[in-house]
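Let's practice the habit of predicting before peeking. Look at the sequence and jot down your guess about where helices and strands might fall. Then scroll down.
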Amino acid sequence: MPADERFAVRRDRARASVPRPLAAAPAPSGVPLPDGLALRGRLATGARRPGTPRGSGRGGPGSRAPRTGRGGGPRRTYERARRAWDRPLTAYYVILGSSLLITVLGLVMVYSASMIKALDISKPATYFFGKQFLAAVIGGALMLLAARMPVKLHRALAYPILMVTVFLMVLVQVPGIGMSVNGNQNWLYLGGPFQLQPSEFGKLALILWGADLLARKQDKRLLTQWKHMLVPLVPVAFMLLGLIMLGGDMGTAIILTAILFGLLWLAGAPTRLFAGVLGAAAAIAFLLIRTSPNRMSRLACMGVSEPDPEGGCWQAAHGIYALASGGWFGSGLGASVEKWGQLPEPHTDFIFAITGEELGLAGTLSVLALFAALGYAGIRVAGRTEDPFVRFAAGGVTTWITAQAVINIGAVLGLLPIAGVPLPLFSYGGSALLPTMFAVGLMIAFAREDPAAKAALAMRKPGVRWKTMRRRVKKRPSGER
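Done guessing? Here is the structure:
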């Protein structure tokens, strides 16, 4: 073949290899395409660069992240849950939601557990439920009020609440004014079917006053000295404990002691100082238990599975019977057998046992999960704030609710002595419900005071987001948007 013909064949092959988008502007006749132009044409149509692995080009399959199944797998689910928990309003919603759920479920269980007791004393079946519902309504108003109050107002109310509480606790011991219920002289008669237990408000008073005291001392850098850490916090707490023990209420005294230890722990008490106060409290508690046959009998009922022939440990044993007969999902709401006179105090101290009998293991675990969520959210509020008063008060409220729940549930399970304390927000009793709901509102207020939470709540107000969007849009010279 002549050289001219061979050159024409090569030229035609080169033209045929040019992609169509670049072939719209062909080169002049008789001029071959440069090699760089042909290479750019191949890259524009997705051709592979020399030395590049197949499938690793831009937009190719090799550039995609490997899939781990639908939803991203457990690790991605965990990351989403962690990011959701780290949001500014998470603690706010967890405290509000868990406390309301515990209160509503408690109202249902109070009605179910107390109807037979009410009929037994010739009252309507809704007698105890009506009183608890009224207390829940008043407590809800107190919770809303506390949630809307600024932190400075809470600090200002610390001393007035403490003085009023001490006055009422002294008034309880005056003959003719104070009342004795179940052997404890710690009630005030308000008229009609209503009574008040001032010692329940002593928990809230100690938390607010102690938090304000420790916060002021921390601002002055005095908490590094043990005398400033203990005085006057410990003497005032012992005064409240003495007034409570005059009425014989050992359970409330234990909760107040737990609050005191919680405040000292948050204040950074050294181990030897903390151990010394704990040892003194344990010695006093041992002395009080040894000198009381009733308290000794309660201590002896730990872990029993059946009452003795003389009728001792009857309540502890039947609490275990109620939990054991519930099974996985319970016998049904209202179908408890133990509340028909077998289990004393089914709507107060041992309402958790009736919950286990009627709602089963699923119901009791749900209650435990709600208390765990409330406690963890309280720890989060106390740990993320820079205000010492908020840290001490939130930690004190969390210690109060958690310790009281543990003591009540531990007594029902037979793991702890029966202390006679109600389950917070759940058991029957308006005197216990009102200060507890105010304390929950206190934690909600603290959760709202976080700067990130304030910004998130401000963005959720009506009209704020629309105004923010309008502010971001700039007008064009023609007046159009």
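How did you do? Residues 21-31, 33-53, 55-63, 468-476 have pLDDT under 50 and may be disordered.
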